Amino acid sequence: MSKFTKALARLQSKPKDFTWSELQTIMKHFGYEEKKGGGSRRKFIHPGTNAVVSLHEPHPKPQMKSYAIDIIIEHLNEGGLI
Fold it and tell me: Which domain, by its residues, includes 67?
C-alpha cells in the first residue's frame, strides 16, 4: 500500500491524529501546489483548475483540526477526486 493510499484512507476515516504531512502527500498526488501566506496560512492551488483550499498549518503540533479535515474531504469530493 502506497504512502498516498494510506494517507487517503486515514483522511476519509477522520482520525484525530491526521497530520499536515499526510495532507501534503494527498494534495501533491492530486496535483495541488502549496503556497505560503502570512503566518501559518497555507493555500493548496490546483494549476489546471485553479481550485483553491485555504487552511492554517497546525502548530506547534502537526495534527490537524477536525474542521480542516472536513473542509479537505468536502473539497476533494466536490472536485470528483474521492
Answer: 3-78
Q: Is the pLDDT of residue 1 over 80?
A: no
3-state SS, residue 46: coil
The per-residue pLDDT for range 5-27, each reduced to its tens digit, is: 999 999 999 999 999 999 999 99
Rounded-to-integer distance, Cα 26 and Cα 6, Å: 10
Q: Please count the structural domains in the chain.
A: 1
Residue keyed to cell 474531504: 73
Q: Give me the CATH number covering residue 36.
A: 3.30.920.30
Three-class SS state of 47: coil
Q: CB atoms < 10 A from the CB of 75, how many? A: 18
Q: What is the rounded CA–CA span in Å between residue 35 and residue 53?
A: 10
Whole-structure pTM value = 0.90
Strands (E), the chain: 33-36, 41-45, 52-56
